[in-house]
Amino acid sequence: MSLAGDGIDRVKSAADLVQIVGEHVRLRKSGSNFIGLCPFHSEKTPSFHVHAERQFFYCFGCHAKGDVIHFVEKIEGLTFADALRWLGERYGIPVGSRSPSSERKAGERRILLEIQARAGRYFRRELTGGAAPRAQRYLEDRGLTPEIQKRFGIGYAPGRSDRLLKELSAAHSLDQLRLSGLIQRNERDSSHYARFRGRVMFPIWNEAGKIVGFGGRALGEEQPKYLNSPETPLYNKSGVLYALNLARETIRRQGRAVLVEGYMDCIALHQAGVGNAVAVCGTSLTESQVRLLGRFTKKVVVNFDPDEAGDSATLRSLAVLSQGGFGVRVLALPDRLDPDAYIRRHGVAAYRELLERAPTDFEHLLARARDKHRLETIEGKVAAIEELLPYLARVSNRIEREEKTRRVAEYFRVEEDAVREELRKAAGGGRGKLELGRSRKPSLSPAERQLIKVILDLDREAGRIVDQLDRSKVHVGMESEVVFSAMVALYRKEGRVEAERLRESLPGDREQNWISEAVFEEGDQQQVDGCLKWLERRKVQREVARLQQQIEQADRAKDIELVASLDSKKVKLILSIAG
Asked: Where is pLDDT greater, at 283 or 170?
């Protein structure tokens, strides 16, 4: 879809972010801004800020940020284009024109969604109309109530392959039906038949609640036991999480998701009141699914099946979730039971208790390595520790990595230096690769935030401050150097520094979040000189520290003249900022 820029600008001008946010968040006035509990993660102390003048929101807790379109995108689980259309319809604003190609694709998508919806209603009628006793018995045996069957849209595909074809072909062409994945052509005689036959049917929705495909469960010994829709313009199995449309509000409210493997486990959890359960179906957890889940939470409990395949899927999921910045816990149910079977045998209260006590991914991996290998032998210890090295190497924060390395050494009673040496090898030979993580979470000082705030607020009159920064280079060598350098470059190019343009020019989330934080800083023009002087002192202090290192090196080399020269420079620098 091609979106005209003026349509986007008109929507932003018409929509009041405070009003839109206020429909989901209880806001209170705080100075010139509004503040409330973040709708995107669980918190008790408000950290979600809305800047009414700039029409911008930012959460100091989870770092969610953006304009009114981004807020609707996140809160409703929509794409940018769909969020823009949602706002356009609300305020009566056309949001741009489509190219002929985009029009065709949009029309094709509407038709395919209609076909999937028709099929869903058809399957549902087949199940509830009394002509599918075998399917009904299966669902009753699995303990699914009529209410939960209705909520999940569960249906039945009859064994005769022509009935669905007749149902759908009355309104749609064979080309459209083949594209939907519901109807297939027999290459031998060019006849057509239904893909799903004699199966209990589970609709697969996108996060907006539209049916995009189906999963069919065989009632006998037919193979495969579960058959999913093929890839279509609507359905990409690596980009969909089952039941996310039903679970997303509970996920937001509770601040975490429970991730299981299949339809029945997910449905059983919802029926038991665990409404934050979602499932991966027929695929390993993918980066796309992790990004999708990340719209609603950054915490997840992985509860896959206890068999070998489930164990392997758990390990793959931990890697993808870790790279996606998730806090992960792992629930391995006792007696090798899956969630559905465990709840039916022990009840939901017992399940919830285990859920609350689920260990972190690290503790789970420690226990798994311990149970898998004979630790009384050297070979067993080596194998156990080697399993953990890839996990340790993925930990980017240096302090966290050091603590976990120490924990591994204590857990398996080996020398810490030996584990660290093997970790260096695993990470690529120990040539500094592991030093990429930082020992602390960098943050701007109040002076840096105030200076950024004032430059943004001064708009076209920010030239004096930008010139001082450019001349003095006081920001060079600081964590925030990239931000101030970008501000100078942006002012030189455009004659102003606008917050959104500045964010777009920065390399990563860390720097972009700094700008978002600075927008809500309480600062004024009177503080500029003090901020610049503070930066100058910081610059001198860094130079003094550098000189001190050189002095110590010269002293060890017995170079008395160099020590005296460097010491003289150091004293002059210290005197320059004294008082």
From this structure: 170
Whose tokens are 């998730």? That residue is 326
Maximum mean pLDDT: which of 318-327, 464-473, 492-501: 318-327
331-351: average pLDDT? 95
Tens digit of each residue's pLDDT (9 = 90 or more) over 503-560: 877 777 778 888 877 777 765 556 666 677 766 776 777 777 777 878 888 777 778 8
Alpha-carbon gap, residue 36 to 23, rounded angstroms: 12
Reading the block at residue 483, the tokens are 């931000």
Q: Which residues of 358-384 are buried (b: 16+ CB within 10 A; e: fewer)?
A: beebbebbbebbeeebebeeeebbeeb
Query: Is residue 233 pLDDT above 80, yes or no?
Result: yes
Closest Cα partner for 315 from 326, 330, 327?
330
Q: What's the maximum distance between 2 C-alpha atoms anywhere in the chain?
A: 100
pLDDT band at 279 (very low <50, low <70, confident <90, very high): very high
Which among 200, 270, 272 is positioned nearest to 242, based on CA atoms? Answer: 270
Cα separation values, 350 from 261, 267, 285, 332, 344, Å: 20, 18, 27, 13, 11
Q: Residue 557: which residues within 8 A CB-CB, separation 6 or more?
A: none
The Cα 278–Cα 273 span in angstroms is 13
Domains detected in the chain = 5-91 (3.90.580.10), 106-235 (3.90.980.10), 239-358 (3.40.1360.10), 365-436 (no CATH), 446-574 (1.10.860.10)
How wide is the angle at C-alpha 183 spanned by C-alphas 182 and 184, nearest 5°? 125
Q: What pLDDT is recorded for position 460? A: 57
Answering whether pTM is above 0.85, one says no
Contact 222, 238 (CB under 8 A): no
Average pLDDT over residues 79-108: 75
Collapsing DSSP states into helix, strand and coil, what is residue 13?
helix
Q: Please give the residue that has the higher pLDDT: either 314 or 439.
A: 314
- Residue holding tokens 């003095």? 472
Residue showing tokens 């080596």: 382
Helix (H, G, I), strand (E, B) or coil at 579: coil
Cβ-based burial of 543 (10 A; exposed 0-12, middle 13-18, buried ≥19): middle
Q: Which residue has the higher pLDDT, 524 or 41?
A: 41
C-alpha 198/C-alpha 130 separation (Å) is 15
Task: Lowest mean pLDDT of 63-77, 287-301, 486-500, name the range.
Answer: 486-500
b (16+ CB within 10 A) / e for 234-256: bbebebbbbbbbbbbebbbebbb
CA distances from 461 to 450, 465, 575 (A): 16, 9, 34
Burial class of residue 308, CB neighbours in 10 A (0-12, 13-18, 19+): exposed
Considering the chain, what is the average pLDDT of its residues? 84
Candidates 187, 188, 189, 168; CA nearest to 179 is 168
